[in-house]
Design goal:
208 residues; alpha+beta; nine-stranded antiparallel β-sheet; five-stranded antiparallel β-sheet
Length: 208
């Protein structure tokens, strides 16, 4: 299978302040290694495996980093001519945009798309959902795929598949060896707490 991530288009900018032009149009950035990973692996696996899997930048010169071993917080971005950097625990981390406006940082490459701006900080869940519905479009043809999100809940160590913001449109997604299971769960709209027990019912099973 060809890498699906190549279908994500990076918007081009020219002239003026390149940093402000790029970040005003593209706020959400994802590590290409993460996109490669979720082609054949679950989001929870990839989020625990890929270092610095996603970034959020804005024109106010702040960066938020997601990924393993990273404290989720805003870092101030310092700009000097065409060089940009953040400081993390006295370490200076430089990044730049190449000719295609791909973000390069610490040997890692990040791409962006302005279509992610519409879903805000759920952009990783939207990306997970986009990959899932492309790969399993026939298996999940009865789902409302236009608003499909897949999230990794580290607290419960499980995946949730949602078709919007309503709790009634949320399902449990499980990866097991070579199969995928989708469950409805009876108590989905109850407030989840410690030792919460999911009363689930299998509605779909198919091969990975």
């Amino acid at each position: 299978m060809k890498y699906i991530f190549l279908s994500f288009i990076i918007l081009s900018c020219s002239g003026g302040d390149k940093f402000n032009e790029i970040t005003s149009a593209n706020k959400y950035w994802v590590n290409i290694d993460y996109l490669r990973c979720i082609e054949n692996n679950s989001p929870c696996y990839c989020e625990s495996y890929i270092d610095k899997s996603a970034l959020i930048l804005d024109s106010l010169n702040t960066m938020e980093i997601y990924g393993i071993g990273v404290e989720s917080k805003n870092y101030k971005i310092y700009n000097t001519q065409n060089r940009h950097f953040i400081v993390d625990n006295n370490d200076t981390i430089y990044f730049h945009f190449d000719k295609t406006n791909m973000l390069k940082m610490n040997g890692k490459s990040y791409i962006s798309s302005n279509k992610w701006n519409n879903v805000g900080e759920r952009f990783i869940d939207k990306i997970n959902g986009d990959f899932f519905k492309k790969k399993y479009k026939n298996e999940i043809k009865n789902f409302k795929k236009d608003k499909l999100f897949i999230s990794c809940n580290k607290y419960y160590n499980m995946h949730f598949l949602s078709l919007g913001t309503n709790c009634k449109d949320t399902y449990i997604l499980e990866y097991d060896n070579d199969s995928i299971f989708i469950y409805d769960f009876i108590n989905k709209c109850e407030g989840k707490k410690i030792n919460f027990k999911f009363q689930k019912k299998l509605i779909l099973k198919f091969k990975q």
